[in-house]
Amino acid sequence: MSWGNRVIIILVVFVAGITFMVYLSMRQTNEVVDANYYEREMKYQQVIDGKKNLLALGDSVTIMNDGAVIKVAFPPSTITRLDSGSIQFMKLSNAKDDKFIPMSGNKTALYQIPLSYISKGLYKVRIDWSNQGTPYYHEQSFNIQ
């Protein structure tokens, strides 16, 4: 085989490789985890304060999957007089599956979310609430199988 044929083969393999990489990159989605990230960044001091307040209690929020429902248990002292709050399940692979659950003022330390309401996958769970004017915040990754 002559050196001219080798150069042509190398160029063809290189162009095929680049074409394949362009094809793969065009199939990649570029979704942002949070659509309103700029507004959230401006309010980040509230998140810091909420994390500090929860950490000062020495207790934390627990999220469990018992097969039929997802249980979100709050420290009882943080839910005595709930002003406002929300539980957000943000699916990292598909923003269409994100779920937003407002927390009502019903003083219950255990929220149960039906498993049929949320699709399977890896989520970032963000929980923020305010009890008697004191903000709290908890964030964790949670896998639903």
Describe the 3D structure:
This protein has 145 residues and is an alpha+beta fold. It folds into two domains: 1-30; 37-144, Immunoglobulins (Immunoglobulin-like), CATH 2.60.40.10. Helix content is 31%, strand content 34%. It has a four-stranded antiparallel β-sheet. It has a three-stranded antiparallel β-sheet with strand order 1-2-5, with no helix packed on it. Strand 6 (121-131) and strand 7 form a beta hairpin. The longest helix is centred in the first third of the chain and has 25 residues, at 3-27. It is elongated, with a radius of gyration of 23 Å.
Query: Would you list the SSEs in sequence order as H and E?
Result: HHHEEEEEEE
Task: Fill in the CATH topology of the largest domain.
Answer: Immunoglobulin-like
Shape: elongated
Helix content: 25-40%
**Distinct helical segment count:** 3
CATH class assignment of the largest domain: Mainly Beta
Structural class assignment? alpha+beta
Write out the CATH superfamily name of the largest domain: Immunoglobulins
Q: Biggest sheet, in brief?
A: 4 strands, antiparallel
Strand order of the largest sheet: 4-3-6-7
CATH architecture label of the largest domain? Sandwich
> Strand tally, please?
7
Distance between the termini: 56 Å
Protein name: FixH family protein
Pfam families: FixH
Keywords: Membrane, Transmembrane, Transmembrane helix
InterPro entries: FixH
